[in-house]
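Notes on consecutive records. When two proteins share a document, each keeps its own sequence and its own C-alpha cell line. Never mix them. Below: protein one.
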Amino acid sequence: MSNITVILVVEGQSEQTFIREVLAPYLSTKNIFIQPALIGKPGHKGGNVRFDRAFDDIQRLLKQRNNTFISTMFDFFRIDKKWPGLEDIINKTKSGIKLTTEQKAVIIEEATFKAVIKAVPKTIVKNRFIPYFEMHEFEAMLFSDTDVIAEKTGIKKTDLEKITKQYNCPEDINDDPKKAPSKRLEKLKNDYLKVTMGKIISETIGIKNIRKKCQHFDQWLKKLENLKS
C-alpha cells in the first residue's frame, strides 16, 4: 500500500496541535500522513477565516506537488460572510427549512469545492481537494466522553452532562460564538488551557471513540482513508 500525504489548512493552534499530535499518529498506521498548515501568513493566531485567505493557501498547495492531497479544518461559525455556500444556508433557514449540523457542513464543503474547481484548472485539482468543516469548533469533539473531560480538568461530570443532553451529538454543541464548546469549558474551569487540555483530552478519548460520537468527523476520515495515490 502506497503512502498518502495530506496537508490540512487549519485556522488555529488547537487544531494544529490536535492534528499533529493526536490525529496524525492515528492515520499514520493506515499509511496516511497528514501535516497541518496554519491559514495565512506566519504569525497568524487563528480566527478571521476569510475565503480569499483560505483560497490563496489551498491553490498554492495544490500547485506545489501533484501527488499531495489538500484538506481543511475550519469552524463554520468563524468563516466570513462571503464564504461559498453560506448565503445558501442563510436563505434556506430564512425560508423555514431546518438544516441539521451535518447538512450545513455538507453545503459549505460542496460550495467550497466548486469554488476552487472553478478557479483552479481541473487537471490540477482532480480529486485532490477534500474540504472539511467543523460546524462549531474542535473542542466540540471533546464532549464525546464527559468522563475523560471530568477526569482531566476536575470539572463536575454533572455540569458537563447538562450541556451534552441538550444536543443530539457533540458536533451540535454551540448556539453562538459566545457559547462555543471551548467557552463553555473555560466558564466551568477558569484556568482551562485551550491548546494543552484539548490535546490531552482528545488523546485520552482516542480517535476511534471520537468517530463513534461524531458522524461528520467520521465521514471525513473515511474519505481520507479511501484516498488513492
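Protein two starts on the next line and is unrelated to protein one.
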Amino acid sequence: MSKTYLQFDFDIKDDAIKDILIAALSDIGFDGFEEKETRLTAFIESINFNEDEFDEIIVQHKIAFLKSIVPEQNWNTLWEQNFEPVIIHNAVAVRAHFHPPVTNVQHEIIITPKMSFGTGHHATTYMMLEQMFPINFTGKSVLDYGTGTGVLAIYAEKLGAAAITAIDNDQWSINNASENIYHNNCMAIKVLMADKPVAGNVYDVVLANINKNIITDNFKSIVASLGKSATLLLSGLLTEDEADILQLASAFDLQQQDTYHRDKWICMKFIIKPDRFK
C-alpha cells in the first residue's frame, strides 16, 4: 500500500507567525513545509497525524486552514514546481537534480528532498550551512543528529570530514538521506536509525538541527557525544529559546561562542569549557 500525506494550507501574512507555526507543527511530526508570501503549506504522513495535537495548536493560534490528501507519487512533482536553488555566499549551493549546476560556489550539494526536512530554504538549515563553513572539518569526526535529507552530513564531508555519522528516527528520512548521500558521491557517511546519539561514541563536531524539545530532552546525550575540543552547532530554535538553551549549556560545562539570527530563528555555537577534561 502506498503512503499518503496530509496537506494543510494556511493563509498567513506574518512571517513571525509562520515561524512559530512551523516550530509547533514540527514538534508533532510534520516534516515538509512550503513558504510563500501569504501562505504556509505543511505536510505530514497520514499515519503520523494526531488530530488532537493538531487541534490544540490551531485553537491556540486561531488559524484557518484547508486540508487535503496528497498521494506519495505527487510529492516529487510538487517539489519540482517550487524548489529553487539556495546559494549561501560563495561557499555552497543546494540544488535539485533538475536544476543546472551552480558554478560560482566552492561546494555544490544535490538534494532530492521528498518529505524530508533540510533543503537550505528554511532559516535553520540556512544558518547551519552558513556557520559550518568557518569550522575546520578536515580529518574530523562528525555527528549529524536529525539528519533529514542528509544535507549537513553531505556538506561536512565536502568540507573535509573523515567520518560522519548521520542519525534520524524516521525511516523516510533515512532512505532519503541515503539516496542524497549516494548522488553526492559521498563515501564517509554512515546513516543510522536512532532517536538520540549512541552512548559511548564521541565526535569532533556535533550538528543538531531539530527542535527545542528534542534538543532539551536529549541534551545530556548530546553533550556526552562531544569529544575534547569539540564544537556543537544547534538550530531548530526560535529566538525566545535562547535563554533556556544557555541555562542548559551552563549546567553541562559548555561555553557559548555565538548566537546567529535569521528571521525569528537562531543557530547557537558552543565549545567544551577548557577545564572540563582536567
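For the record: The mean pLDDT is 88.
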